Amino acid sequence: MEESLVPLVPMSHTATAHIRSHRKPRRAGNSSLAMRAGVAGGVLSTLAVAGASSAANAAESTTQTLSLPALTADLAAQIAESADATQQAAANYELQAERDAAAAKAAQEARKDLAEAKQKAEAKEKAEAARKAAAEAAVSRSVERATLSASDSGSDSDSGSSSASSQVTAPASGSVATVIDFLKAQLGDAYVMGATGPNAWDCSALVQAAFKEVGVDLPRVSQDQSTVGTEVSLSNLEVGDILYWGAKGSAYHTGVYIGDGQYLDAANPSKGVVIQDLSGYPATGAVRVL
Q1: What is the rounded CA–CA span in Å between residue 21 and residue 10?
Q2: Torsion angles phi and psi, residue 167, rounded to 5
Q3: Which of the four pLDDT bands, split at 50, 70 and 90, describes residue 147?
Q4: Could you tell me where the DSSP H helices lie in 152-280?
Q5: Alpha-carbon gap, residue 181 to 124, rounded angstroms
Q6: Are 274 and 187 in contact (CB under 8 A)?
């Protein structure tokens, strides 16, 4: 079938004015597309800004997260160092305080020891002076006895009696006080079996040394010391009497009566040289040599 061709007739301007133009819809469509593109661009821009902001925040957060442990570790180290320094200072202060206390105690003990040593030295000096005086007096009496003996026409027995008497006789003046002063000067010394001074004694050695200060030579051991001089009753004791424990002739301990119911002796290793009450440890007997 053949198509019929319709001849084109030119329209007037008036006629075409009432025909709707097809360009405007195209322009409208372009505007809509542009609007959509703008909206999309705005959205993309917003997302880009938000993404950049999130990235920046994430970076900043990461930086802070990495920095905080370092700062915390430094602070902990500083605190630990400060605590160590404080503890060390406290320990040093405590140590110094202990040293000061020990030094003060040592100084106090040294002063006490010095005072005791000085007192003991003074007592020994007095005892030595008394011993010399007693020795001089003894010599003087010996001279007197020799003079009397030479002029006396008495028997040999009288002379023998005088000689025997001189073995246990000491100067009467001050002799007992000298013995007691010597004994008290040894207070606090140690007891050691067999020791004879000057800082440690056994019982009989101390008694022997005390009476030697006034020129009386006593036997060394307790058994023999219990047999010298004159036997006296325990109810009639005088200062300076020698006390013994055990049977006469086999005594195992000796000491010296110092008055007021007390005696002085080198007691035992735990006590040393002490003053004790006779009522607490009654003696068996007593002898008098002064």
Answers
A1: 17
A2: -70, -25
A3: very low
A4: 156-166, 175-185, 203-212, 222-225
A5: 8
A6: yes
Q: What is the mean pLDDT of residues 176-201?
A: 96
d(CA 224, CA 217): 12
CB 269 within 8 A of CB 261: no
Cis, peptide link before residue 69, omega less than 30° from 0: no
CA 97 to chain centre: 11
Q: How far is Cα of residue 104 from the mean position of the Cα atoms in its chain?
A: 11
pLDDT score, position 88: 86
Distance CA 245, CA 193 (A): 17
CA-to-CA distance for 43 and 60, rounded, in angstroms?
A: 25
Contacts 24+ apart (CB under 8 A), 167-170: 167/217, 168/216, 168/228, 168/229, 168/289, 169/216, 170/134, 170/138, 170/211, 170/214, 170/215, 170/216, 170/289, 170/290
DSSP 288: E
Which pLDDT band, with edges at 50, 70 and 90, does 81 fall under? Answer: confident
Q: Which CATH number does 129-288 carry?
A: 3.90.1720.10
56 pLDDT more than 60: no
pTM of structure: 0.45
Q: How far is CA 21 from the centre of its chain?
A: 120
Nearest to 131 by CA among 257, 238, 216: 216
Q: What is the DSSP letter of 168?
A: T
CA distances from 237 to 217, 231, 276 (A): 21, 10, 15
Residue type, 218: L
